[in-house]
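Lab meeting, action items carried over

1. Structure of the two-component assembly. Owner: GW. Status: complete.
Input record:
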Amino acid sequence: MTFLYLATEDALSEAVGKKMIEAEIGNIVVQPLRRNGSGYLRSKMRDFAEISERNVVFLLTDLDNVNCAPQMKKDWFQAIVQPDTFLFRIAVRETESWLMADRAHFSDFLGVTQNLLPRDPETLADPKAALVNIARKSKREIRSDLVPGRGVRAKQGIGYNEVLCDFVERIWDCRRASHNSDSLRRACQRLAEIAHHITN
Amino acid sequence: MIITRLHLQNWRNFKSANAVLRDVTYVLGINASGKSNFLDVFRFLRDVAKSTGGGLQKAVSDRGTLKKLRCLHARTNPEVGLEIEISNSADDPFPTWKYRLTFNIEAKGAHRLLVVEEIVTKYDGNGNEQILIKRPDKQDQADSERLTQTALEQIQANAQFRELAEFFGSTTYLHVVPQLLKFGDLIGGRKLEDDPFGQGFMERIARTGEVTRKRRLARIEKVLKEVIPQVEQLDFVRDEISGTPHLEVRYIHHRPRGAIQREDQFSDGTLRLISLFWLLLDGTSLLLLEEPELSLNEEIVAQLPRLIEKVQKSTKKKRQIIVTTHSKSLLGNAGIDGRSLLILQPSNEGTAISRATDAELEAMESGFSPAEVVLPRAQKVSGSNLQMDIFG
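Predicted assembly:
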């Protein structure tokens, strides 16, 4: 038996990963590995490499403020050899970019015009801030969950994670989003390529 | 109305401490830093303000003696004092009320517990103050027995500030201990006044009017179904023979009619969850939540801040909620307002209360959660590395 492990740093990227697997591979059993924070992922690189010798590991992380993805990958792997079945994918720059890349669905979900959504979300320096800013114009129920209230010392609203996870699970279409995000398109492609390895 | 400022003087762990509170306030600190003692200030004021079965003498004797209330760090035997400011909203420039109470045991004679100072101040919208009560007054000087009672607890004396007395008196505190509820009859436990540990939780539900009760249980059922997939229905029933109130949950089961469990069969988590939800929906007064994360699974705990905020928005009057917590999951919500955190840090001179620093606020504004930014400081055990070697 070959299993598919999905390693992420938060609930939102886990939801995204699951949806991608569902779209590219189909309905298979996914074993999530998650403890919040990218430090955990980085500290487990050797273990991921080892487990992916017999199975498939799909690791999803954010580029955040690192300059370029190849450099980040190099830093994370160091001397570790990457098996073919260890998919190491970086969202440029954050998972939020991938959500916004599905412009039609996301604007619909927020109740804003599509023009408000960036055409090329990978170029955003701070996708989360951009998302929150767009959400300021969204319908009230969603706005109060995504956007911090006036004067509140926080970057996001109190229901941010739950609302976005709900969007991903119910609506987000990774194939449509792929048109506007190169890092997402390539991640989907790689997933489709390794699909035949999984037997369960 | 919400409590926006609090000053404590020789109150339990706090030798002298100030706190600023908001609509929702999260109180963080290591074990024995005084989180429960902090919440007890509001329960104490409630006990003092109660017009029946309350009052200063009762509030102190329910907590043992004044010695037990007074801060251990106090060197002589100074008075214990509280000062509270109440405003219409957290960002108002002026409070609407200020209440100050200090009390002590008289040094000679009968060693009565006496009010040392009691001041009630009312403010208009421009911050002009009007002192309604300033004690001890002439009558108190003539008859010191009057000082055994506060003006707050006396209906005759508090007419001008009844609003304040009622505000203090309606505080809710509930820290449901599932075992006390489940095995109450076996333990034969004495129920404390105001039932802080939830032994009378079923009666609390039973006392609520039927329409309200049904509406609340329906809302709770909805959330419960989301977090516990097998739950089908949550009902309130009365035992046919004894008339005792019960909660029943119907679970989806291999039998077509499902399986029914009563509250004594619920898991601790289910019970705490139901009681937490009930409490959030019950009333509009100050609500004190002591470690709501207990027995709950982390995914649910992570959603508590949002749930709390939702409840606040759904009620007409904004309800003030003070939460003590240790939970990384709860504080991992990066949407929590950095200004709503209070950190209790014990020292040799009593516990100090601080807020998030500017650097911490800045970090939270950039997307870090309180669990990342403030919790490490709040949970740091002072001194050298913690070594819990009980077998050494």
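2. GW to write a short summary for the group page. Key points so far: The mean pLDDT of chain B is 88. Residues 10 and 55 of chain B are 20 Å apart (CA to CA).
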